[in-house]
Amino acid sequence: MSPLFRRAGPPRDRLVTLIRKPGCHLCDDAQVVVEKVCSELGVPWERKDITEDRELYEKYWEQIPVVLVDGRQHTFWRVNEDRLRKALGD
Fold first, then answer.
1. Share of the chain above pLDDT 90, in %
2. CA 2 – CA 15 distance, rounded (Å)
3. Cis bond upstream, residue 44 (ω within 30)
4. In whole angstroms, what is the distance from residue 84 CA to residue 90 CA?
5. How many Å apart are CA 20 and CA 13, to the nearest integer?
6. What pLDDT does residue 89 have?
7. Structure confidence at residue 28 (pLDDT)
8. Are 78 and 34 in contact (CB under 8 A)?
9. Angle at the Cα of 19 from the Cα atoms of 60 and 70, rounded to 5 degrees
10. Deepest in the core among 7, 40, 51, 60, taking most CB within 10 A?
């Protein structure tokens, strides 16, 4: 299994990645949901900026914001709090 993809496990072993860009209101909205859910469940999360990563830009520029759970695309454009919780095992 590629190290990019993690298996489901305890919340502290999961990783949520928010791929976004500056000045994106949907990205700001998505970050609020990701921060809330991850904080409540104890799941680490990271933010990546497509303007600083050419590979991410080429892959996701039409879909941002994009949320990855354990390296796999979970959603894009709008983040549903309940769906993210379910994906994280709550």
1. 83
2. 15
3. no
4. 9
5. 23
6. 86
7. 98
8. no
9. 100
10. 60
pLDDT tens for residues 59-73?
999 999 999 999 999
Domain ranges of the chain: 12-87
The tokens 């894009």 sit on which residue?
Answer: 76
Closest by CA position to 17, among listed 47, 44, 38: 47
Global pTM value = 0.86
What's the rounded Cα separation, in Å, for the pair 40 and 6? 21
Q: Report, as an integer, the average pLDDT of 28-52.
A: 97
Instruction: Please state, as a whole number, how many other Cβ atoms lie within 10 Å of the Cβ of residue 5.
Output: 10
Arch. (CATH architecture) of 12-87: 3-Layer(aba) Sandwich (3.40)
The angle formed by the CA atoms of residues 1, 46 and 4, to the nearest 5 degrees, is: 10
